[in-house]
Amino acid sequence: MTVLDLADCINETCPWSGKPVAADSLTTYRGRVVGFCNPGCREKFDKAIGQFDAVPERHGAGREPAS
Question: How many CA atoms lie within 13 A of 28 on its CB side?
Answer without folding.
Answer: 9
